[in-house]
Design brief:
By secondary structure, the chain is of the alpha/beta class. 40% of the residues lie in helices and 19% in strands. An 8-stranded parallel β-sheet has the order 7-6-5-4-3-2-1-8. The longest helix is centred in the C-terminal third of the chain and has 21 residues, at 160-180. It is globular, with a radius of gyration of 17 Å. 39% of the residues are buried. Bound molecules: pyridoxal-5'-phosphate. Pyridoxal-5'-phosphate is lined by residues 23, 25, 46, 67-68, 192-194, 208-212.
Length: 217
């Protein structure tokens, strides 16, 4: 199956209102071009340097999402062009993005990254911490970021009951934050190659799919 076939196939399985983020990290430009030629205009990358060089090399109508852990000293590399930073996992990072966006005269869309998986290594807030920080009102003072919603990952496991309960937790947290604090949020980014079908059943609005499109990295 070609990259084009893979993308077309995934698209036929996505309900209306669920966006496909083609996760192109570690893939060569030629592979991204093949995806682009099917009409794909939304790509996700996990490293700022790689994101910046792919932005340079490819057409300007692509929307680029940063989906990997971002160090504050790398924000400058991507701030001028990034469409969304999905992996905002600390207050310091949110403040840095806000400052940099203000400096260059942009408002940058972000997602707050929630940690619900069992792996120690994954970044993000737990639901209690997240509610605490949102209810403090501190994000309201940051005029150059726009919080669009939440991003999260499930544990990497074959056990569907774990995956389902973690996506349910992400969805419950999203609904609660939306109801109590941020009625405007509209993005719940969850689901990868192995688990995007489950994520969609739990209300994902954006799936981040890499290996099922491009093959193994
Ligand atoms: C790599 C990555 C993906 C895509 O993973 P696949 O299993 O290749 O679909 C999704 N989200 C994040 C945050 C990633 O780093």
């Amino acid at each position: 199956m070609s990259i084009a076939d893979n993308i077309e196939h995934i698209r036929t399985t996505l309900p209306l209102g669920v966006e496909l983020i083609a996760v192109s990290k570690f893939q060569p430009i030629t592979s991204l071009e093949q995806a682009y030629n099917t009409g794909q205009r939304l790509f996700g990358e996990s490293r700022p340097q790689e994101l910046a060089s792919k932005w340079e090399a490819l057409p300007r109508d692509i929307r680029w999402h940063m989906i990997g852990h971002l160090q504050t000293n790398k924000v400058r590399l991507i701030a001028p062009f990034v469409a969304m930073i999905e992996s905002v996992d600390s207050l310091r990072l949110a403040q840095t993005i806000n400052q940099e966006a203000e400096r260059i005269g942009r408002v940058i869309d972000i997602l707050l990254e929630l940690h619900v998986a069992q792996e120690e290594s994954k970044f993000g807030w737990n639901p209690v911490e997240l509610e605490k920080i949102i209810s403090s009102g501190i994000f309201d003072t940051m005029a150059n970021i726009r919080i669009r919603g939440l991003m999260g990952m499930a544990t990497f496991t074959d056990d569907k009951s774990i995956i389902n309960s973690e996506f349910a937790q992400l969805r419950t947290t999203f609904d609660h934050i939306k109801q109590q604090y941020m009625p405007h949020i509209d993005v719940l980014s969850m689901g990868m190659s192995a688990d995007y079908r489950e994520a969609i059943l739990h209300g994902s609005t954006a799936v981040r799919i890499g290996s099922t499109i491009f093959g193994v990295r």
